Amino acid sequence: MATPDSRKIRVLLPSIFPLRSSLYSVRFFPIAQHLGDDYAFTFIVKQDNAADTADRRNVLETPANVRIVTFRSWAELVRLTRRLSSEADILFPSKPFSVTGLHCYLLARRRRVVMVQDTDDLEWAGVQWYYPQEILIERFLMRRVRYASVASRGLLEYWPQAEYVPNCTLLNVFDPGRTDRGREAAATRQAHGFGSRPLLLWIAGGGPIDMVFPLRLLEAVRAKVPNLVLAVVGERPDLGKMRRRAADAEFAQSVRFLGRVTTDALRGMYLAADALLLNLRDHPYDRCKCPGRLAEPMAMGTPLIVTDVGEPAYVVREAGCGVKIPVHPTRAVEAVVDFLTRPEPERRQIGRRGREYLQRRRNWPNVVPALDGLFRRALARA
Hints:
The protein folds into two domains: 9-168 and 363-381, Rossmann fold, CATH 3.40.50; 176-361, Rossmann fold (3-Layer(aba) Sandwich). It has 15 helices and 13 strands. The chain has helices at residues 22-35, 74-85, 102-109, 133-144, 153-158, 181-192, 212-221, 239-246, 263-272, 284-287, 295-299, 310-319, 329-340, 344-361, 364-381; strands at residues 9-18, 39-46, 66-71, 90-91, 113-116, 147-150, 163-164, 199-203, 229-233, 255-259, 275-278, 304-307, 322-325. Strands 3-2-1-4-5-6-7 form a seven-stranded parallel beta sheet, with helices on both faces. A six-stranded parallel beta sheet has the order 10-9-8-11-12-13, with helices on both faces. Helix 1 (22-35) packs across helix 15 (364-381), helix 6 crosses helix 9 (263-272) and helix 7 packs across helix 13 (329-340). The termini are close together.
């Protein structure tokens, strides 16, 4: 293999997402842009379908060092990935690409440098999401991959030879200073009928998730914060279970399902909310996760209420941008009530620490050099 100085470093990023997905604008394009002309990226992306991505507009143009290759079918994705992987120095699979089984195949076949964000990128063929991740990592990653970066410190507990390089977000997109913060928050509250009631935001993301936890926590906290509202953003096939439970009379006025929202509407929700609730389970999968939405509310100055599991707990502890709670809802009540009943200026100050933390430690210009160093060291030894 040629040394990194003799030619461009070639990175292959296979993904099942269309190019309009926000994953490219907030993560992949900034990485390519800041790594610069020494790198040549090839993105394998799904043929774009405007109907299912109407609210996912890229905020960055495709960088000059990125080549886009599209596919229409799984079979075509398989063929492209096998062919292009032979040219790549670095494999950067995007979740949930690895469910095709090619991820495991490629790693076993060639000892490449691999970017692994969190457990979503470890969905090997035939392995369910609830499969114990420590066994998965021991059997595959520790034997097959010599160099890797991870965005979750939970993974380091099982895979200590990897290097931690955190996820980032675009601070200019999620910037509370772009508009009048108070006016935008008030408009969002008025549009959804929240008024001045305490507001807890919960995002129905992908992957295994405990959808009972928010409702049980709401039920327990309302005894001391009776006007509390839980706003649920997002859609997923199994959200119906949560909807049916929330339809009970006891929750009728306390839970609002907002469905999918645009980026601008999500900004407004972050500003209007008193806190974002992020509940991970005490499970190997969740201990290794790094939720993609973690940085967005921090960038907007929204305080975090997180279960004491995985990367979110590390971040809250370091940044002081929220509170950690136990994984059992009834044990979390005291901490949540204490936070929601604090004076508003104090809660806002806690939220601002999140953005300050991102500005210091989690913006792409500061983080990408660490990736560059890892890649160059690994390729020099390959």
